[in-house]
Amino acid sequence: MYALVDCNNFYASCERVFQPHLIGKPIVILSNNDGCIISRSDEAKALGIPMGAPEFKVRAELKQKNIHVFSSNYPLYGDLSSRVMKILESFTPHIEPYSIDEAFLNFDGMSIPDFHDYGSKMKYRLQKWLSIPVSIGFADTKALSKVANKIARKFPEKTKGVYVIDTEEKRIKALKWTKIEDVWGIGFRLNKKMKAKNINTAYDFTLPHNEAFIKKEMGVVGMRLKYELEGKSVLDLDLPKDRKTIAITRSFDGNITTFDEMKERVSTFATVCAEKLRKQKSCCNNVIVYLRKDKYKTERQHYNFYKMETIPFSSNSSITISNIAVKMLKNMFEEGEIYKKAGVIVTGIIPENQKQFHLFEEENPKHLKLMKVMDDYFKKTGERKIRLGNQDLQRTWKMKQNHLSKKYTTDFKDILKISCQ
Fold it and tell me: Where is each UmuC domain found (predicted)?
């Protein structure tokens, strides 16, 4: 048996954990640099606020309808997400975090007489310990557990936020209720093709006469989805693996026109990439630097630029990766141009203990000790106070976040103060 646990309106729920007076009130969350709306509470959806709308276009409407606006606070959301996953691990050791607010659970080998009761206990504990509301769907396959979750979310009064598909009758009824565009893996383009073929529900998708069409349009992925919806489990839990590419890219809150300012940004991005490599005990072999000019203010036809360089030896040193990134930047940067975005990407990632050593060219062994000191300090304090000389000591990267809430759980300066009388 699988379960899909989905946190309801996760970003808005995180803001409400420490500001409970916002419960029941409309909330929207903005993207990086407060660009557009990326998350809405149910109350904001009911008021007709569109997903993805640029903030400046709906600013007056948000104010008029008294909607609470927040900049995205990823340190807070990430910390609460990890707490949600930790609590779920107490119910089963087999868990696949699917996104920041979703996780698949597997209960094979466990003796659970009543899954609805078990799901209710999970829901109660998450609400009691973290004040995060969730919906939970149980079924024999991952795809069906997604369908069950949607039913639990859509009908909270009837299901109490937990729904179990455990009979053939329930499976057929659920598939007939699920629109094809709501099926896991059916995107915008596939949805149009499915409807043109008169496949309007998940049940239609599983009918035998549509199998050839599904195989032609979706290949093996489509057939796996069909089997999953039929109740035949073919998708196992995808356990977390080390990342094969690490990218740090950011849009700037203003224009960057000088080399020194861009050098500081690129060096900082390279340093964070190296830090992530060391955290997962890996090294990289390639470094890519990415720049984007202001496409409206450049006379050139192209405004996106990449450059890649292979490191002579595998490395996770901030110094080495930053030096190579800055060296590439010198060849890419053009004075007089306006830049809006930059990034550093590391690839060719291998485990740290599989690093090949070279006879004539090798990294300075002092880097290893220095990186350990930097990592230990960051782990202890949560602050990147030890930095390379070409980094700005006052910032890691600066984004426009005019509506940012406090980092209640990850920054001592923002911790809640309680007056005891």
Answer: 2-187
Q: Which region holds residue 31: left if phi is over 0, alpha if psi is between -120 and 50, else beta? A: beta
Beta-carbon-side half-sphere exposure of residue 226 (alpha carbons within 13 Å)? 20
Structure confidence by residue, pLDDT tens digits, 169-191: 999 999 999 999 999 988 888 99
Helix (H) or strand (E) holding 280: none
Per-residue pLDDT of 107-130, as tens digits, reads 998 899 999 999 999 999 999 999
pLDDT tens digits along 252-306: 877 888 998 899 889 989 999 999 999 888 999 999 999 998 888 777 778 888 8
The DSSP code for 164 is: E
Question: Residue 359 to residues 261, 321, 324: CA-CA distances in angstroms?
Answer: 37, 21, 21
Q: What are the Cα distances from residue 43, in Å, to 22, 100, 218?
A: 11, 22, 37
Q: Count CB-CB contacts under 10 A for residue 126.
A: 20
Phi/psi at 252 (nearest 5 deg)? -85, 150
The DSSP letter of residue 354 is: G
Residue of 56, 65, 54, 74 lying closest to 11 (CA atoms):
74
Alpha carbons within 13 angstroms on the beta-carbon side of residue 270 total 29
Quote the tokens at residue 384: 């990147």
| Residue linked to tokens 């104010």 | 63
Which residues face 28 on adjacent strands?
40, 69
CB distance 268 to 397 below 8 Å: yes
Q: How many CB atoms lie within 10 A of CB 286?
A: 15
Q: Are 108 and 1 in contact (CB under 8 A)?
A: yes
Strand partners, 343: 249, 290
How many whole angstroms separate alpha carbon 387 and alpha carbon 87?
35
Q: Determine if residue 131 is left, alpha or beta; phi over 0 gives left, psi from -120 to 50 gives alpha, anything else beta.
A: left
Q: Which of 361, 343, 220 is nearest to 288 (CA)?
A: 343
Asked whether the beta carbons of 119 and 164 are under 8 A apart, the reply is yes
How many Å apart are CA 277 and CA 365, to the nearest integer? 17
Neighbouring CB atoms inside 10 A of 118's CB total 21
pTM of the predicted model as reported, rounded to 2 decimal places: 0.72
Q: Hey, what are 361's tokens?
A: 């060219």
